Structure formats: C-alpha cells, structure tokens
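Dear support,

I submitted the protein below through the web form. The confirmation email said the job was done, but the results page showed an empty box. After a refresh the structure appeared. I'm attaching both so you can tell me whether what I see now is the final result or a partial one.
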Amino acid sequence: MGLFDLLKRGLAKTRDKLLGGLRAIFSFGRKIDDALLDELHDTMLAADMGPQAVTALITELREAWRAGKIREGQEILPFLKTRIAGAWTPEARAVRMAAAGPTVIFVVGINGSGKTTSVAKLAAHLRKQGRSVLLAACDTFRAAAIDQLTVWAGRLGVDIVKHNHGSDPAAVAFDACEAAIARKVDVLIVDTAGRLHTQDHLMKELGKIRRVIQKRIPDAPHETLLVLDATIGQNAVAQARIFGEVADVTGLFLAKLDGSARGGIVVGIREQLDVPVKFVGLGESVDDIEPFDPGAFVDALFADTAR
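What the results page shows now:
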C-alpha cells in the first residue's frame, strides 16, 4: 500500500468531517462570495485545523478572490492544497543526523500519547534504512515501561540499555551514550517517562537528562521528538508549546492519526508553532510509521471531495 493510500485510510475520520461541507462548497459552477468563505471557515474549523490556521488561510483566499485570481468554488481546493502543503520544506522535515558518531534522538511526551510504541516504530523505520539502533530505557518510573521497551528491542533485534525500576533516568542516559559510542551505533533513541506538561519537577528532569547527554556527546541530542496524540486535537498545541520551552523540541511525531477525527491538527500545529511534523503513526503495527509528506497529506485529507 502506497503512502497516499495509507494516509487516506488513516485520515478517513477527519475527511468524513470535511466532505459534506466541502462538496457543497466545491460544487461545479458555484461562485465565490463572502457567504461561501464563511461556510468554508466553519467547515475547516470542524476538522480541528485551529482558528489561527483557518483564519490565515481564509484571509489569503479572500484576498486572492478579490484580486480576481480565483472566481469559482472549484478553484478553492487546488488553492488550499498548494498553500497547506507549501508550509513545510523538505529540509525542515528531515531527521537531523550527526556529522560523526552516534545520532541521539530524544523522545518526550505525556502519559498515554503512544510514546513508547512510537519509539519502537522509529527504531523499526531506522533499521529498514540500514542503520544500527540502540534504545535507552529512561522511563524508570514504571517497571512496565522498561519491560515494554525490552520486548520491543527483542522483536526488532536492537540492543537496549536499562537500569532497575526507580533508578536515576540521567544515569541510564549516560550509560546509553557510553554504550552507543563504544558499539559505534548509528542512532541512540532515548525513551523518557511520560509526563504531563504541568508537572514542573518532571519537566525539569528532562533538562537534567539532556545535560547529561550533552556532556558525553557534545552536539546531542540531535533531534528532540515530541510524541503527540492526534486524537486530542487543539490540546496538542498547548502540550507542544510547553514541552518546547523545556526540551527544545525539534520535531513532532503525530501518533494515532488513524484513529482521529482531528487530523486537521497537523495544519493548526504548523501555523501556531515553528516545529515541523516529522513522522506520523497510522496504525498499531510497528511498521505503521511514515515520514510526514505534506503533499500526500493534503491529497489524502481532501480526497474524494469533488465527487
């Protein structure tokens, strides 16, 4: 199954929200007017694209209409797809790799976001690219989290560095860095404990882990990925903003996109935060991960609209 088909399947619930309103708006021969643009505004909000993103898109659309660049409803879809897809550059979406030595990917998120499963998916993705991977089990607060990551490591055929339940997460990170250097692995993925963005003491701990990593591998972490649950919609923006302040987030892994009717959050996040979506999770299998492709995303989001 190709990327478009995977995204189309994953975005089915979101697209269902869009289809009814958009089909009427994009009907053949309908002229653009203020009423139509107001309808479009409300329809896009219903898909959880976010008020800031929707307002910006509708403002640009209105200006294009008044300038005579577009005249009929059927011209709106190509306009929107071009504008939305153009918001992400290939350079921004690429995973930052170390110039030499191990690349360190620091993974953060709240409890229940699908973080540890996303770590496994990321490891599987990198293994398919021919890269060697080492996992660091820095979620020492939950014995189940260490066990879960250990099981994934076994299934994927990758090594894992772990300590006992209740150990210092920063100590695990240090040992993992030592192991990554000694074993000359390509990528070290550091899984951290899930935490609410309102838990100050746990958020500060992320900073401690980062500092330990930086002391052993000076330019690390090269990527800090925040795993967000796509089903929570606009609440994900608040999470991303707070985590960004503490953990210097460089990219987003949008999990559970296949089970969400709020896939439009991808658009909202881009408008409100200067952090690119780098990966999307499209199912429960370890292989259900795709690097984010904005062109395929908008094609799948608006698929079948004109029928």
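Response: this is the final, complete result; the empty box was a page-load delay. The chain is about 50% helix and 15% strand.
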